[in-house]
Amino acid sequence: MAAEFKHLVLVKFKDDVVVEDVLKGMEKLVSEMDSVKSFVWGQDVESHEMLRQGFTHAFLMTFNSKDDFTAFASHPKHVEFSSTFSTAIEKAVLLDFPAVSVKPAV
Predict the structure, then answer these.
(1) Integer Rg of the chain from CA
(2) Which of 2, 30, 31, 103 is within CB 3.0–4.6 Å of 39 for a Cys-Cys bond?
(3) 77/36 Cα distance (integer angstroms)
(4) CB-based contacts of 6: which residues, under 8 Å, 6+ apart?
(5) Could you please report the per-residue DSSP string of the chain?
(6) Phi, psi of 97 (to 5 degrees)
(7) C-alpha–C-alpha distance, residues 82 and 88, integer Å
(8) Which of 56, 47, 52 is nearest to 90 (CA)?
(9) Whole-angstrom Cα distance, residue 77 to residue 73?
């Protein structure tokens, strides 16, 4: 079985952005896309400014396979949302990777 595929996005929103509106749009997008296995997001509340380098929010999507991610990334709804999303962010880091599972020692 192929490894799950992850799409991680770290962002710093522009100061004048209504973050809740962006989050609603992202949640709507994900709910309409069957290829997304799971979606979680959070806002940093613990890290020191120096360590987080200005990034405030993290978004993590899980897909069953790289093919599912590729289909999601090229889907017209994602392309449309991405253009809106990119105008709301000051900076971002994206990482797309196959998940590596490690069994904990017993």
Answers:
(1) 15
(2) 30
(3) 13
(4) 60, 61, 62, 63, 95, 96, 97, 98, 99
(5) -PPPEEEEEEEEE-TT--HHHHHHHHHHHHHT-TTEEEEEEEE--SS-HHHHTT--EEEEEEESSHHHHHHHHHSHHHHHHHHHHHHHEEEEEEEEEE----PPP-
(6) -155, 150
(7) 10
(8) 56
(9) 9
Q: Cβ of 65: how many Cβ atoms within 10 Å? A: 16
Alpha carbon of residue 54 to chain centroid: 17
Pairing of strands 57-63, 89-98: unpaired
